[in-house]
Specification:
The structure is a homodimer. By secondary structure, the first copy, chain A, is an all-alpha fold. In chain A, about 70% of the residues lie in helices and about 0% in strands. The model of chain A has no long low-confidence stretch (mean pLDDT about 85). The interface between A and B is large, with 42 and 42 residues. Chains A, B: GO terms for molecular function: DNA-binding transcription factor activity; transcription cis-regulatory region binding. Chains A, B: This is TetR/AcrR family transcriptional regulator. Chains A, B: Pfam families: TetR_C_6 (PF13977), TetR_N (PF00440).
């Protein structure tokens, strides 16, 4: 009886190998040859799953982006969940900022992928779609958490969402550059004061 | 009479070449060989100025960081300048966020350098020193612009400064990923609302 091969699992394994190699030695370390060797494949067998490095990088980008959203909230229905909207906002934004060692390390893979997206229109488009969805969902969270106060205009939600997404991206870089974690508590304070700003009654 | 060679100028020229190559083709494109060829040097002559790629990258990092501060305000004395402190804050923070094509492109070089700093302790230390000075100066600007209001504690200045620096870093990535500049105006609105937040009277 022929062995049953789970091709999807193999693709996932290959992506994990690529991610690990990038984490250890940057983009240059993740060659088709090194990925094949590390995954225990012949070079030709690897090409059965991914025709070239570009397609592995694209899949790795997708994978790292979805890791930033482990609970899949970007794909969630907009239907109210019953959860308190301020708690929901707090939970989701805390999830986005890198606090654990694993999340901080993932920032390094993101740096590599952003860099390559700068000269690869397809990767850039993948990121733009992710970013656009992330922004949209964040605006929805902010609107719910503010209780639909009239004092907050659509422009303000746009600005608050871009602020929050930018801080999250910035925190990726800052925490990666400061492995002693010296800014983690300041980011926690920032998130609390951000929530306070969004939810406080208009004067 | 022997030709007088301006060695400092040559070092600066080499750094500009490295920056241009990184901008065009990423870190891999900037090899000792390609830098020497592009700068019109023999490989051996290049080594007279920089013993290896690591030292060129370190010098390029320094150069890109000082470009982020073209007016040298990070090295300025803390002596009051006579300028209105709110205007001073506005001018400096607008300068830090990438708005022009040149500034947005510089973000790509930064991505490469951050990535390499993640596995190069010396580069990471260079960045930490820059970041620490940038943060310190920003806290000073915020304190002056808020008019020393009692309502603002030291912790709040720390949080506001980290917010602003993180947004600036995030804007580097976001603007690089969106070459159509669709978020430039939202960043302008953010900066104005940030200043409003810092300078407004306590309720």
């Amino acid at each position: 009886m022929p062995k049953i091969i789970d091709h999807d699992q193999r693709r996932r394994d290959i992506i994990e190998v690529a991610k690990r190699l990038i984490l250890q030695g940057g983009f240059e370390a993740a060659t088709m040859r090194s990925i094949a060797a590390e995954a225990g494949f012949a070079n030709g067998a690897l090409k059965h799953y991914f025709p070239g490095k570009e397609s592995i990088i694209a899949a790795t980008f997708q994978s790292v982006l979805s890791e930033m959203d482990p609970q899949g909230f970007l794909n969630e229905d907009d239907a109210p969940s019953g959860q308190d909207p301020v708690e929901r906002l707090r939970e989701r934004i805390t999830m986005s900022v890198p606090f654990t060692e694993r999340e901080i390390n993932a920032g390094r893979v993101l740096l590599v992928l952003w860099e390559h997206a700068a000269s690869n229109p397809e990767l850039a488009e993948t990121y733009r779609q992710f970013f656009s969805r992330w922004r949209e969902v964040t605006i929805g969270l902010l609107r719910d958490a503010s209780g639909g106060r009239d004092a907050v205009s659509e422009d303000e939600y746009d600005t608050l969402a871009l602020e929050l997404l930018s801080v999250t991206i910035g925190a990726n870089v800052v925490n990666l550059m400061h492995p002693d974690g010296r800014f983690l508590n300041v980011y926690r304070t920032y998130l609390e004061s951000f929530i306070e700003r969004v939810t406080r009654r208009a004067p």
